[in-house]
Specification:
single chain; 202 residues; alpha/beta; UDP N-Acetylglucosamine Acyltransferase, domain 1; seven-stranded mixed sheet; five-stranded parallel sheet; globular
Amino acid sequence: MTESERMRAGALYYAGDEALSAARLAAKELIWRYNATAPADWEGRTAILRQLLGHLGEESWIETPFRCDYGSQIRIGDHFFANYDCIFLDVASITIGDHVFFGPRVCLYTAGHPTVPEVRDLELEFGSPIVIGNSVWIGGNTVVLPGVSIGSGTVVAAGSVVTRDLPEDVLAAGNPCKVLRALTEGDRAKWETLRAAYEADS
């Protein structure tokens, strides 16, 4: 297997491999261009993201600055928004659903390193995928660790460190991140009432 194949399979691999280094450099060039675009250049930014990412859905936007490793392993759905300074380490796949919101400095880390120093010192590493469902809101300065899935409809409070899977339709917070409670019909009724008042006043 090539080092790229090992990386994509979730096996130990050597990140200093020539082909992987070239792929990261190509991604950095695109990211540099993206981060240098004019704020109102929607078309230019979108074109660069479509070249960089594995998939970018419709009406999706990432504020600058933004960083990632390869880009090609990131798949983003429709109506996604990421605020400033987000970092996606995509040595494994990152899959993000529709209508997902990220606060500033949300970090998705698929990369891991061996806990045994004799192996880690060989500069071998591995990756585990991250999956985020639809209509998820992740607050600023949250870190999502390798192998984590976050269910649709869930809200993760700012400053959380998500070390384990989160189910659908819950409010979660903390380091390590834990479920605080389920999102209820009471929540829905409150926000639907507020939405109706907004629409009536518009």
